[in-house]
Amino acid sequence: MVALHTTIAIVAIVALIIRFKVDPVISLIIGSIYLGLAAGVGFEKTVEAITGGFGEIMAKVGLLIGFGVLIGSLLHAMGTFRKLVGTLIGVFGAKRMPYAMTTAMSTIFPSIYVDVQVVLASPVARSAAPHIGDRGLPHLAGAIGAGIFAGYVFMIPGLAAISICALLDIRLGNWLIYGIILGPLTAILTTLIYGLLLRAGWWKKDRDEEYDEALAELEAQDLADAEAGASEVTRTPPLGVALLPILIPLLMIAFGAFAEVLEFNTPFIDFLGNATIALFVGLLGAFLLARKYRGTDGTNEALSEGFHTTGEILLITGIGGSLGQVIDETGLDETLAGLFTADAGAPVIVSILLAWFIAALLHIAIGSVSVAAIAAGGIIGPVLPSIDVSPIAIGLAIASGALFALHVNSNFFWMFKSLLGLSTTGALKSLTTVTTIASLTSLPIVIALGLAL
């Protein structure tokens, strides 16, 4: 009966979000309360599980998410990401832009939110597209979509990646060792495969693209501002300096992870490699740069925007932890453990495929990569001690599954469509297609890692 009630709770959450347009936070709380009461956890323990689960995940990722969002907000205010995109065009040229864009999106841009990423990248894609040819716009659109979400789920400090690590109790440094390879590799392979699809006639310009005169005017103004030095940002730091608040924390985390693996770590090295300390160093650096180049008012404005965004993120992340704790209290782990230890010939592969399938199904239904990853992590987390598979492999499988088929029930889908000047069909043939390819491309790599770990 516990499995049945869990299924009902998840279906109810999905239905509330999709059919009745109820906010995910409210939907997750309703599902958590139903599951706790229906599964016999009891009134008091259900409340304790909801509050305890929220507090537990906040203790793990609250500061990490907050620091990461604030870093992104400060760098965005200084024009760092716009300058990076402009540099990519100058260095690689228009023809190589799809691969340059998808690499940057999957490695450096995850420090800012996905909606800001597409806002920054879309004018560049539209302006560079004519230099590539008739397939320029769809190829760049696909590269942007693949890079944004590969970075979001695989790369630190992508929200989905951090959340999965917290729910499965994976050290960020250990995850980073694999994510820093898997993220850009998935994005580049997806962009390559998608380019082959376009060559085979996948794209029909007259049906898949829409010309928006108002958007074109805004884009022209945006590019003019950028050429003039950007109207909002009168002074900007050199690009290499501006990227240090992102690069230094990643190096600190990676160094700590390698020190642990190679067994030369000390308490001081562990301190430096701690993700919270590393991201705080990045935040401090971004703050000092912003004060120098944007002044006190500009810095405070960027921080205010970051705090606003952080609150929304933390709430949905914490409630995802609440659902996971309620599931843990129901004893579902014993039931799911039976599925994950299926006595097939390859239990590692079966377990990875199950984790991938749960995340993919949740994403198709809910339409949010982060909510799907958090919900899947909450469901699978309690099972991990019962199966003989590396938590990192299961976590990467969840990340891979959460990528699958981003489509019309996602707000990002419609933003992507509008900003890139695509029809609904064009958005399906670009964003939905590349996220599906990325999910399916990364899965065999995750399976291979799972067998090796």
UniProtKB/TrEMBL annotation:
Which key words tag this protein in UniProt? Answer: Membrane, Transmembrane, Transmembrane helix
Write out the GO cellular component annotations.
plasma membrane
Q: Which InterPro entries match?
A: Glcn_transporter
Q: Which GO terms describe its molecular function?
A: gluconate transmembrane transporter activity
Task: Give a yes or no for keyword Ribonucleoprotein in this entry.
Answer: no
Q: Which residues form a coiled coil?
A: none
Which residue ranges run through the membrane?
7-37, 57-78, 99-120, 140-168, 175-197, 239-259, 271-290, 348-380, 392-414, 434-452
Supply the name of the protein: Gluconate transporter
Name the species this protein comes from.
Nostocoides australiense Ben110
Question: What lineage is this protein's organism placed in?
Answer: Bacteria, Bacillati, Actinomycetota, Actinomycetes, Micrococcales
